[in-house]
């Protein structure tokens, strides 16, 4: 199945469980793979027939600016549900990394997979 990708998208948001984290904005780095059949868009060379990675990236930025969750789990889960609903994404995997949260690690975070691939057609358009 085809995928539309967003890799290493950097956002700033209020995120964290500790008091000191509630008063600052921290960077999250995100990767998304979103399933869709790209053949209709390619055949017509038409953005309206695929997932617009620029529009989705902009929506993620707005979500991050407005959110203030404690856990990266909550950030990922709420954002995935919102993106699936607003953009009609049948299946996605999202990785949310919080660089610097554990100094000994390059990054820590979560990866979630939501939705079903069964609704994405493999048949030629
Ligand atoms: N599974 C998680 N573990 C931790 C989280 C989290 O969001 N998910 N958050 C923290 C703190 O906010 C940490 O990032 C501060 O350095 C600790 N563990």
Which key phrases capture this entry?
single chain, 125 residues, alpha+beta, GTP Cyclohydrolase I, domain 2, five-stranded mixed beta sheet, 5 strands, elongated, binds ligand LV4SOB2L
Output the number of helix runs. 3
User: Can you say what the CATH homologous superfamily is?
Assistant: GTP cyclohydrolase I, C-terminal domain/NADPH-dependent 7-cyano-7-deazaguanine reductase, N-terminal domain
Radius of gyration: 16 Å
Structurally, the number of domains stands at 1
C-alpha termini separation: 13 Å
CATH class: Alpha Beta
Please identify the structural class as seen in this structure: alpha+beta
Q: Enumerate the strands of the largest sheet in spatial order, edge to edge or round the barrel.
A: 3-1-2-4-5
The number of distinct β-strands equals: 5
Query: Quick check: average pLDDT?
Result: 95
CATH-assigned fold name = GTP Cyclohydrolase I, domain 2
Multimerization status: single chain
CATH architecture: 2-Layer Sandwich
Q: Globular, elongated, flat, extended or rod-shaped: what is the shape?
A: elongated
- Helix proportion: 25-40%
Ligand inventory reads: the ligand Nc1nc2c(c(=O)[nH]1)N=C([C@H](O)[C@@H](O)CO)CN2
Strand content: 25-35%
Largest sheet, in brief, is: 5 strands, mixed
Order of helices and strands: EEHHEHEE
Indicate the low-confidence ranges by residue numbers: none
